[in-house]
Amino acid sequence: MLGFPNAKINLGLFITEKRPDGFHNLQSCFYPVGWTDVLEIIPAPAFSFTSSGLPIPGDAHTNLCVRAYQLLERDFKLPPVQMHLHKLVPIGAGLGGGSADAAFALRLLNEQFSLALTTYQLEEYARQLGSDCAFFVENKPVYCLEKGDAFESINVDLTGYHIVLIYPNLAISTAEAYANIRPRQPEKPLRDYLQNPIETWRTNVHNDFEDSLFPKYPILQEIKQQFYRMGAVYASMSGSGSTIYGIFDAPPAIPNQFTSYNVWLGKL
Ligand SMILES: C[C@](O)(CO)[C@H](O)COP(=O)(O)OP(=O)(O)OC[C@H]1O[C@@H](n2ccc(N)nc2=O)[C@H](O)[C@@H]1O
Ligand SMILES: Nc1ncnc2c1ncn2[C@@H]1O[C@H](COP(=O)(O)OP(=O)(O)OP(=O)(O)O)[C@@H](O)[C@H]1O
After folding, report:
1. Quick check: CB of 220 below 6 Å from ligand 2?
2. Which of 21, 92, 102, 240 is the most exposed place for a label (fewest CB within 10 A)?
3. What is the position in ligand 2's atom list of the atom closest to the CA of 102?
């Protein structure tokens, strides 16, 4: 069985407080984008996991796809499988790539072996693998609260807009990015700003990670500014970085200065 675990972007990211468990409460809108990995899971005589494409740091035994299989194996008698992941979505990028792989592994195993898990049950498993992971079960635009794993519906539809994502070959660890954050309570909930037209977002739909990461990595701010010079209706960093995205009315020409970076262009 074949799946295409996709990236997400954050439309705004307010980090509101540090929690007693060490994690942070946040407000964000997660929005799926079409930059994908490829994940194949087929029944096999013995369990195996292999990957190709972008190198994934860490031992293959700890890959999130393997951890998804092991999590379900605790509760179900799963037959052995051969899993292959072709990695295309950059890592340490704020795009939730690893979380998407894990969620798609859960979804594919559920289907392949007719486990009959509901969306709610799949989300419960996904939460154990990462804060971003539960989003990829339903994989539709959603307003996120708490650790990024509690959802409310929101009326944000960017269908028809063009998007450019630039990963400037700079991996940022999520844990490290959170460690340098000073949480703040916003004047108004992010949801209120997102309900206004996208043309107004530039002034108040903010990613709080930009405040600590832009001074440290000036290239990130340069890309964002370049997107606005190119006519973006909205531009921002995604998640804990380092990917910067720009949303456009029409597909833009990519300046030469970006050709050495990992660039993805598509439609929302
Ligand atoms: C930055 C975001 O991508 C926003 O969408 C997510 O909050 C990150 O989610 P994620 O990559 O799934 O993160 P996890 O694998 O759950 O956690 C990695 C580390 O990030 C920190 N972390 C993560 C999520 C959160 N709400 N608060 C945190 O403080 C913790 O130090 C944690 O040990
Ligand atoms: N399938 C996978 N894809 C990517 N990283 C994985 C995967 N499985 C395990 N990992 C581990 O997770 C780490 C990346 O996590 P991290 O959360 O920083 O990046 P991300 O997947 O780009 O997501 P985000 O930055 O949005 O949180 C890697 O260094 C790697 O050790």
Report:
1. no
2. 21
3. 1
